[in-house]
Amino acid sequence: MNKPKSSGKPERVGHSVKVFCSHKQLSQTGAKAAICSSVSSDEWKATVVKSIDALVTSCVVVPCSFSHTGGNLPSSRLRAMWHDKGKTPDTKGNNIFHSDATLIKDNFKGRTKMLGELSQNNCTLEITEIRNHDNGPFCFRVELVKSEGNEPTKDMFSFVEDCVELNMITEPAEPTLIQPMAATQGEPYTVICSVMHTCPTHVPTLTWNWKTEGIIVYHRLIHSGNWETQSILTFIPEETDDNRELTCTAAFNEKKTSSSKLTLSVKRIENYNHIIIPAVVGIGTALLFGIFCIFMAKKYKNHIAELQNQEGTMWNRLSRLSRRQWVKSLTTLSN
């Protein structure tokens, strides 16, 4: 569809405001954000993601913010709606969200809600249970109402150039696994599993085919509308873990899953026990044998000394006995 050329001046269309926008291309996903000015005597601006991925059966959160030169207004004086682009927002069949629930399209009832506070200029929209025909584009509209009876005033603004279009994704993104080059037996090892998504209110659940302890989970905003969930697994690999398959599975809104896997390569620690143990046993045996030999040698020497002492004593006794008998014999002869 060809857009009218901007003359640099705002243009009023009925009770809505047609705005002229400057678009900024965001990195990675190609999402676009637009900052737009309204045609009112007071300047209005809005920032809405122009395009965002939405996984069928899951959910999506569309970031949206707006501002008014008059400052923040109380929620009681603001009425919000999201409607099909190019259609009248006051008609029931054209609103995917409305402050008055009776004016929401039947196939969107119970599936949309505003996450932000209008008084804080937050018009962020959540759509759950995404269906393959929820592609949009959808535009945000704000109305100023009287405090009595919630009756609208003439101040109503549709950011018709700030509409979001959903890119229907039927299959979930696969998790990304980040690992060091190789694991070493007995040393801490960390693997990171991460997955991108667009629904921070129902983040994907990441699980491992491993022990549940030692797991840390993080959620972070990458850029407008795109989030990342990380699961960090730390463990101490053993020799038996070599060539083991490690799998990370992402479950989106408990309905669709995807997984990624890797094969562990565990570097073994060199084991010299087959050399050390026999050597220690041999040295110990030799030492014990040496001690035993020394003990036996000393015992043998002591035994010999005792025998020698015993022989000397007997010889002395025999000598004394012989002398006595000789003296006795001489005495007998002399008589």
UniProtKB/TrEMBL annotation:
PROSITE patterns: IG_LIKE. SUPFAM superfamilies: Immunoglobulin. The chain crosses the membrane at residues 275-297. The keyword Hydrolase does not apply. Residues 175-265 form the Ig-like domain. InterPro entries: Ig-like_dom, Ig-like_dom_sf, Ig-like_fold. Keywords: Membrane, Transmembrane, Transmembrane helix. The keyword Hydrolase does not apply. This is Ig-like domain-containing protein. It comes from Oreochromis niloticus (Nile tilapia). The lineage of its organism: Eukaryota, Metazoa, Chordata, Craniata, Vertebrata.
